[in-house]
């Protein structure tokens, strides 16, 4: 029950902040729709911690609060793939907040070095022996997981593809509306991570809400339908994540309209 309540609270906060909706009934309706998505249903089973870093990143990037950097640092301490949001703050011009986020993350590693090291090494290290762990290789939907399904040197291809995607991301987030930039950063973090499981695609919630905020309701509905619980294999979910990334990131507004929240 606590897991469900935690997911719902974090989900509602994320929907409200990203979509910009202020009417409680519309927030409740959109939150209820998000509860039908497969990654959200997985989070209910796994516990509330997976949704909390998403809410912290949404608030930290989109709400003009002096301690926004601390929220991003706390999110990265809870879930390693959200560490990309430290760079998100930096490349979008919020250098002081990025430094604060990095400091909070480093502090968490110093305060709880044993637990933090075990968590981060589990997140990264398990991915690199995936060929020897068939269940892990099959459930990994990141770029590395997708390359493991192809007759190519997976690590080398992943390194090149991840570097290229990060280079494109760094240019893209400067031009996107702030809500879309947050969604793009979350999706890129999932794809470039050494390992990502289906519940990590909870960033689809941010993508749908960002498309609603940007007035692209048809695209938002299409993304929502794609991630209903169709029981698709993880490698296909990874491919769908790339499509969502393109849907959110390519129809870019002029730079003058894509203002960053300072």
TrEMBL record:
It is a multi-pass membrane protein. InterPro entries: GT87. It is found in: Cell membrane. It comes from the Bacteria. The lineage of its organism: Bacteria, Bacillati, Actinomycetota, Actinomycetes, Streptosporangiales. The keyword Transmembrane applies. Its main location: membrane. This is DUF2029 domain-containing protein. Belongs to the glycosyltransferase 87 family. It holds the Pfam family GT87. The chain crosses the membrane at residues 44-63, 70-91, 97-120, 141-170, 176-193, 233-252. Keywords: Cell membrane, Membrane, Transferase, Transmembrane, Transmembrane helix.
